[in-house]
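WARN retry 2 of 3 for item q-0093 after timeout on previous attempt; input resubmitted unchanged.
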Amino acid sequence: MTTTRTPVAAPRRHRHTLAPLAFLAPFLIPFVFFTLVPVGYAFWQSLHKTERTGGTFGRTETVFAGFEQYGDVVSEPFFVDSLLRVALFALVQIPVMIALALALALLLDSAVARLKRFFRLVYFVPYGIPGVVAALMWAFLYDPRLSPVVDLLRSAHIDVDLLGPDAILWSIGNVVTWTYTGYNMLIMYAALQAVPADLGEAARVDGAGPWTIALRIKVPVIRPALVLTGVFSLIGTFQLFTEPQVFRAISTSVTSTYTPNLAAYSLAAGDRYSEAAALSVLLAVATFVLSFVFLRFTARRQG
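OK item q-0093 returned
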């Protein structure tokens, strides 16, 4: 007499382990291939350098150099200057942009707002414009030979060089703020839509006005969205490249090492790939550390 075995079902614990991985796969797979692998390759390349043997016409070979490239990059004069420049940029530009985005989101979420869909689109349009196109457009508005804005300022006896060394950083900051305010506003507005209407109604019954409801109820509730936009802005600041690269073509105030990202590009363009890789790794580590510190600080303040 033959007996048939009933297939044994997979352990429940095994199924529970695979389920989260299946949901995380659409994020993890691109993250591994397009973030971790390039950073790992850059780290490997930063530990090697190319040497020429046999004189000028000899062959080149790649040798292990350890952390020598990191020491060379850190000792470069532009390293500290570019980091301090980006840090100053972040301290001023990020709070201004987040405040503007929050104000626009609260205005759209207010009960008296009209044409909400239209203004959401209007605020978001700058983000949809390619970065190079946006930078070129603002470069035209900054150029004293072509700009109608500069002509208006001069007619009002205001003489300012928007492409000069004293103003170029904030001119770039204006372009970044114009581009990304609408994007951050959309994240905050989406968070405001999830705020229970009962909270506002209860506050109105207690005599709270629109400003009190916005600042004391809505803003604390959407704090996670504010933290998220802050982290995105911090990461984007250390990736600042497009705007300085475009402005470099029209202003001598922007050098090839104006920002760390631009400096890494310039090193690679000069066939100094190992140093460019070392600078890229340092930039990635600095971005990770600052983002982690920012998240821990905001979590502690919230707690």
